[in-house]
Specification:
The chain is mainly alpha-helical and 200 residues long. It has helices at 12-34, 41-48, 52-58, 62-84, 89-103, 105-117, 124-150, 159-179, 185-197.
């Protein structure tokens, strides 16, 4: 007895969503390999194996496409690093983020370039950077508060002061990757962390 399975033809909406995901993924890959300065619509189209016209039809704004790609990378790297550093508390997670950023410098430099250049909170990039920073700081603070409750951070530690210090160390090393590509940011993070936690 044979079972006949009806063939599902994707709708125009499903095809459009799939194309947009493919373009964003291709932009992430292009930025990682070539960096922001050498990535454009043509480069994304080559990586996505589609025409530049198709890319521009789905993403008329280049800035919007790059922001979508950076946002996608941010979410993916947080999930990946969280899996890889499970059980090592917030400071271990932060070290994992530094190592991941070092391995994907094109994307890290793109994010830092946006962060440096987005002084206007009214524009798209400025809002994205500020929202991302606020969410990141809140995530680190909540993580450290949890670590405090679990005894991974010593009782009496001023976590509200520690969180921005840890974030500043992380952000400073992102800037180092932009301005001094030869710096080993993982070693630098370990040294900075040693100073923060000395006496624990």
């Amino acid at each position: 007895m044979s079972t006949i399975t009806a063939h599902h033809e994707p709708s125009a909406f499903e095809t459009s969503v799939a194309d947009r995901k493919r373009i964003v993924a291709a932009t992430v890959e292009a930025l990682d390999v070539f960096g922001l300065a050498s990535t454009d619509i043509a480069a994304v189209a080559r990586v996505a194996d589609m025409s530049p016209t198709c890319v521009e039809r789905h993403f008329p704004s280049w800035e919007g496409l790059v922001l979508a790609a950076v946002d996608r990378w941010n979410l993916d790297r947080f999930e990946q690093v969280a899996r890889e550093t499970a059980g090592s508390a917030t400071l271990g997670f932060m070290r994992g983020l530094v190592a991941h950023s070092s391995a994907h410098r094109g994307l890290s430099r793109t994010l830092m370039t946006f962060s440096i250049g987005s002084s206007d909170a009214a524009d798209l990039t400025g809002r994205f950077v500020r929202d991302s920073y606020r969410d990141f700081h809140a995530m680190v603070l909540q993580g450290l508060l949890f670590d405090l409750s679990q005894g991974d951070v010593p009782a009496g530690t001023d976590v509200a002061a520690l969180a921005p210090t840890v974030v500043s160390l992380y952000m400073g090393l992102q800037l180092q990757m932009l301005l001094q590509p030869d710096v080993d940011v993982v070693v630098a993070f370990d040294l900075g962390l040693e100073g923060l936690t000395r006496g624990w």
